[in-house]
Structure prediction request, 74 residues.
Amino acid sequence: MTAPNTNVEKQTRRHKGSLGGIALAIALAIIVIAGLFFWSTPEATTDATDTVETINPDAVETTTIDTEGAVADQ
Prediction:
C-alpha cells in the first residue's frame, strides 16, 4: 500500500538536511575515488640498470691547456 497523503514539497523540506548529507557523501566519495585513481597510477620510471654506462679510462681523450692558451693534445 502507498501512503495516503504524499506531499512531495513538504517531505523535501522535512528531509532537506538528510538529502544534503547524502549529496555531500556522494561528492566526497567521487573525490576520494578520483584521488585514489590518480595517486595509484604508476609513473613512468626507468630501470637503473638500463641507464648505467661504463667508461673505459683508456678510451678517454685528455686535453691540457698551457698558460699561454695553446691547446696541447696528449
About this structure: The beta strands are 63-65, 71-73. The mean pLDDT is 76. The helical segments are 8-14, 16-40.
